[in-house]
Amino acid sequence: MRLSTSAIALVVGLLVNHEAHASEQPQRWVSAGGALSEWVVALGGESKLVGVDTTSQHPESLKALPSIGYQRQLSAEGILSLRPQVLVGTEEMGPPPVLAQVRSAGVQVDLFSAQPDLPTLKGNLEHLGALLGNEAKADQLFAGYEQALAQQKAWVIQAQARQKAPGVLLLLGHAGGKPLIAGKDTAADWMLQQAGGHNLATHSGYKPFSVESLAGLSPEVLVFADRALTGDAARVALFKENPILAATPAAKANRVFELDPTLLVGGLGPRIPQSLVALSAGFYPSQPKPAP
What we know:
By secondary structure, this protein is of the alpha/beta class. The protein has helices at about 5-25, 35-40, 75-80, 95-105, 120-130, 135-160, 185-195, 210-215, 230-240, 250, 270-285; strands spanning about 30, 50, 85-90, 110, 165-175, 180, 200, 205-210, 220-225, 255-260. It has two domains: about 25-140, Rossmann fold, CATH 3.40.50; about 165-285, Rossmann fold. The protein has eleven helices and ten strands. Strands 5, 6, 7, 8, 9 and 10 form a six-stranded mixed sheet that branches. The chain has a four-stranded parallel sheet with strand order 2-1-3-4, with helices on both faces.
């Protein structure tokens, strides 16, 4: 079958337009916010990244990129020195005058929401997928994520039919220093709920830990996230700097679990479903472990 001259022209035109569209996509990206950077990688955009903030530590390869500092304390000079075409981040990114300066230099600044819920994640992935020209992959990733959380929810319901939800406190600290207690309306609170825990903190946001704040609370489980230390060193530092925590039922029963603090930055990230499985296993040790 021979193609007519007009059909050939149409095919050539489509190919040219596709190539032009691809070449128009920004090739130099900077990302601020751990979860957002992970999604850029998951969507095949890692090769476009020329810089990330200090919370962008996963995958390991991102640590080799130039750092633009902490997402809330960015400097325009540091960002612009990387000659980016696009800066992506959440509403946690700032300060606003720096973002304004970056925009005025001709850099496209795209803001995403860090709200921890599925509708927000769906919108974020659709937006990011469009920017990267990979909408189909974005839809695929969200579908898998939604399914994983549905399985997690079903497991928690079964576990709670046999065991009462444990009272939990989540502490966010730095080298064991006075930590912050994660309250309502935080990504930490959302994670505790999804894992089947009952957050004993009733305040909103993050509140400095004190002896008074622990009064009347008997956490059965402690979850800690340290920005400077990991493993046994982080745990030892937490109890050394805050000895009253050692007297809690959680510490006495050795129900103290570590959480990667980067999971709490930039909204819902790709590693959260797997982390929820690990938390749930600690919250309900007598139940069969949830499937990863």
